[in-house]
Structure formats: C-alpha cells, structure tokens
Amino acid sequence: MIYIIYIIAGLGAGIVTGLAGLSAAVVITPLLVSVCGWSGYDAVTVALAADVFASLLSAYTYYKNKNIDIKRGFLVIITAFIGTVIGSYCGYLFSQSQPDGLGYISMLTTVFLGIKFLIKPITGGKESASGESTREKKKTVLAMFLGCLIGWVCGFTGSGGGILMLTVFTVVLGYNLKIAVGTSTMIMSIVALTGAVSHISMGANIKAIPMAVVVLTCLLGALVSARFANRCEIRKLNRVVGTVLLILGIGTIALKMFG
For residue 73, is pLDDT > 70? Predict the structure, then answer.
C-alpha cells in the first residue's frame, strides 16, 4: 500500500512540474511526511532528487521550442547555487530542533500556491527584454539577488523555488510565460541538484527503492504533462493545477494533524 503512495507522489509531482514548472516538492514532501511518516528533512531530499530530472526534462522541452534565456539563466544559477547550499544547511539545523517543521512549511506552501493559481493565475507577460541598457543590467543584478534568496528557500524547504523563479522572470525581467517557465525550470534543475547533494552529504536518511520509485514515476508524469501543457489553454492549466494543489495541501495537513 505504501508503494502506491510513492507512485501517486511521484506522478503528481511530475504532473505539476510539467504543467506549470512547479517544484516536485509541493506534492512529494507533504505526502511522504503526512501519509508515509517520513521526517521532513528526508522527504525534502527525495523531492529535490525527483525535481532534478523532472525540471530538466521540462526545460529541455522548452529549449527545443527556443523558450529559454540561456545567458541570464546561468547568471541566476550562480547566485541560486550559493543560496541553496546555505539554505540546505539551515534546513538541517532546523530539522534537528523541529523534525516535522519542514513538512508543515511545505504543506502550507502547497495551500498558498493552490490559492494563488486560482485567484491570480499567470496568464500573460511581456516579451523578454534583450537589450544591454543600464536598466536591463540593473534588472539582471536584481534577478541574481532574488535568485540567491530563492535558492535559500528551495534548499531550506525543498519547495517554492519554481513558482518564485517564475515570478522573478515575469515581474522583474518582464518575460512572457513560456520563456519564464522554460528558464525557471532550467535553473531549478541545477538548484534541486545542489540541494539534493547538500542534504545527502549532511546525513539525510534515504531509502533507495522508495526514492527510485518516486523519481521514476515523477519523470514519467513530467514527460506526459509537459506534452499536454503545450496543447492546453493557460487559464485552464491554472485552474487545474490550483485546484489539485489546494486539495492536496489541505488534505495532507488534515492527515498530519488528525490522522
């Protein structure tokens, strides 16, 4: 029965990653913590590992369609890498005093994201800026600073990085949605890899077979959903993902508190 939960967690995570570029952790961490009884730190580690492959696959799909800003993306990766390492260490220290704390943070993040997609969906965005003016350089520096903060959040909680990156690229840099999703998933694949390695090196207790099941099913979910997303109207995607996340977040919190 527990392996059915692992499969559901992996598929669900892959689906939200492929549909909207969200971190796999918004699905995997709550389910592993609330239903399977994993510690928050170990669950975040598995979620980050799954996120590496799911985000990389999604990014490749957007790359084939020329919807990634490689130059700015790699600049943000540098600062996000630093933030992720620091965040992973902070998450380790936090997990020592509050073993379930990361799990609850991830559950609340899931609820927040669900409400956000339903109330204020990301449906537009201007064309990406490509100039080298002083204004554009300032925007790039700001994006790098925010990338460091987002890396910290992702390393600490294993969640929220994808949607925050998406916000940076649509609001700060003014990218259209496709370029924003493509570039953010490219960055998140590197951030997730950094976070996963950091968590494992700091002593996360990983079960090899459950982790493999979650990662492989997550990859399958991302492959199918990414193809579907390219044919689906964006407002419909927002409603579907928002509803799923809201139900998941509330459900897992209820299971953890009253189960």
Answer: yes
- Structure token digits, residue 169: 């690229």
Give this prediction's pTM.
0.72
Radius of gyration of the chain (CA): 17
Structure tokens at 63: 């790359």
Contact 219, 52 (CB under 8 A): no
User: What tokens were used for 205?
Assistant: 């207790």
Q: Rounded CA gap, 182 and 179, in Å?
A: 5
Taking CB atoms within 8 Å and a gap of at least 24, the contacts of 9-12 are 9/214, 9/217, 9/218, 10/50, 10/213, 10/214, 10/215, 10/216, 10/217, 10/218, 10/219, 10/220, 10/221, 11/217, 11/218, 11/220, 11/221, 12/221, 12/244, 12/248
Two structure tokens written together for 198: 């950091």
Q: What six digits make up the tokens of 86?
A: 């620091």
Q: Give pLDDT, residue 157.
A: 65
At residue 127, what are phi and psi to the nearest 5 degrees?
A: -65, 145
Residue 110 or residue 197, greater confidence: 197
Short-list 157, 40, 185, CA closest to 87: 157
Quote the DSSP letter at residue 126.
P
Say how far apart CA 159 and CA 44 lie, in whole Å: 8
CA distances from 254 to 10, 12, 111, 249 (A): 21, 19, 12, 9
Contacts of 231 (CB under 8 A, 6+ apart): none
CB atoms within 10 A of CB 131: 8
Locate 80 and state its tokens. 């996000």
pLDDT of residue 219: 93
| pLDDT greater than 90 at residue 177 | no
